[in-house]
Amino acid sequence: MDATTDKDPLVQEQIYNALCYLGESEPEEILNACDEYLRQHDKLGYPHRVIILKAMETVVKNNISLLDKSTAKEVIREWQQAASDVLVAVGGCFINKVMEEVLTKFQPGVLPHYYVVQTFANLAVSNGE
């Protein structure tokens, strides 16, 4: 996974594809490995973190019926928190664009997802003056 920091988009795409491919045969192991890697590399640049998060998303979507319920719940929670953190960090420089995207998740008459509200709140806190 260290190769995600390679600046060549083809290398980044190959890493993403490899994680997704491995996730087809061993989804829980790949999800746990990605989760552990992200925890150990909390200073990983956001573009590189996104590659791993997207691979995790694909593995979860493609294998949700194969995952143990407790693993799925934990991985999804961790993935959502990490994605929220990425949006908040990107919002440090591109607050208007991130806010536009987050606001699209608020629909009239529909209770927003917990992480949408949390992301919105964290954006407000981190960009307050």
From TrEMBL:
A Pfam match: HEAT_MROH2B_1st
GO cellular component: cytoplasm
Protein name per its UniProtKB record: MROH1 protein
Domain of life: Eukaryota
Coiled-coil stretches: none
Matching InterPro entries: Maestro_heat-like_prot, MROH2B-like_N_HEAT
Domain MROH2B-like N-terminal HEAT-repeats: start-end pairs: 19-127
